[in-house]
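=== RUN LOG ===
request id: a7f3
mode: sequence -> structure
chains: 1
length: 498
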Amino acid sequence: MKKKLTILHANDIHGQLQFTVNKDLEMRGGISLMSGYVKKVREEEQATFFSISGDVLQEDIWGSDYKGTNTVSLINYLKPDAISLGNHELDYGLAHLLIFKECIKSPVLCANLVVSHLDEDLFMPSMIYEVDGIRILLIGVIPRAFFNRIMSDEFCRNMLIYKDTYEAIREETARYADEKIDLVVLMSHYGIDGDRTLAEQMPEDLHVDMILGGHTHIDMDEAEVINDIVIAQSSYGTTHIGRFELEVDMENGGIADWSWKRVPLNENTSTFDYGVDDLADRIVFRERPKQDNTKLCEFADVYTQRNRLYESDLGDIIADAFADIYPVDFVIMQSGSLRKEECGPELTEKDLKQLYPFDDRFYVVQILGKEIKEGFDYLFSLKPDGSVMNGTFQYSRGFRLVVDGTGCWEQGCHVKSITLFGEELEDDKYYSVGMTRNCTDNCFTYFAKTFDESRYKIVSLSTFNDLAKWFITREEKVVAPEKGRFIFENFDPATIKK
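=== RESULT ===
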């Protein structure tokens, strides 16, 4: 016997709340069209399941006001049947994460976070969702790198541990061994390459049927099948939604047949939900704090950062600002901290919030010269999973990194030199390196380095306010400095593996 099941899935909504209108005045995307589509399918199909695989919170100007929690009421309106964690749910620490968990009305799944001394899961690791007699086992999973984002908190380090994903899947499938399960679905935020690896290495006895993924922000033309596991992501924001039509084998379990498409959300495919539109309008415009358009300063030109891999005008300006504000030898700043592709010639407080929406702590870390060299050697080395650059950065004035990208994907890149104000780094000298919280939290991921707490000093609890003060004191126009802090020789960006 076979039964039909429709699965709708989204990922990486990132607080993209409102629709856009093209030149032909056609509406596209937004929470109102997504809600309308989900409602329509739920009314049309007898058996429907709707999920969101991570990153429902946002990272833009409204995220800096609300830390993303304004999105919660809209997600509750959508009524997803299950949600799994993404990396941006961990942006603001454990306390914020638990507030998010308690305020979201849908089940929030993650099988990897365990309270160590209690041996208890911090989140619901899995659940059974039943519709029209079809029983779906859902398991939420995140990679270890995301867990490291909250490890800077001493309480988290002492109380939480990361459970290996395959171990977690095995435990959750064993939990329901005596029950009838028709379908096993992972809700993952590993990214498409991570999902492929999960599927390739999946032990046969776990019988996973499907991975509903997120994190990569890709527009898949077709779902993939690896090791008999079907993998798909929907897109980014609210422009599309993924849709599976399954025939479920009710006798033996698993998928008998399936089709998938990435549905564009527009007036042709969806109805407009005016209820959620009114709610979104209140949140975005009337209930959020008033944005001050006060002019902070002027740029000498329109400055940009359009590719995170390379040194940029905006990256140089912000890194130099941090180096001026804090007592450091140089600054290492993640390129991803900058979220607006261009600014200027006038910079307002609103512009700065869009450019740098993270109001964060700032650390000074004492690092030996040889440790800095080893860290960058690791950053550009070929990893076992075939990756090379696991982070992209901007640097403050005086720092100069030269890397040879010849044969990058076959043997890794070669760090030719690292200098500070023209001098090679001394192996046994400690340098004061300025980094934001996120960078220090992920030092091991980026540079394979962990440092004793005695080497860290918090010098600010509010990087955004510090930047605003720095810009507002500029009496003359801010000029982007000449390039030369990161020289990447013999590298073709077209070879970057997606």
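=== NOTES ===
The chain has a mean pLDDT of 88.
Residues 243 and 261 are 5 Å apart (CA to CA).
=== END ===
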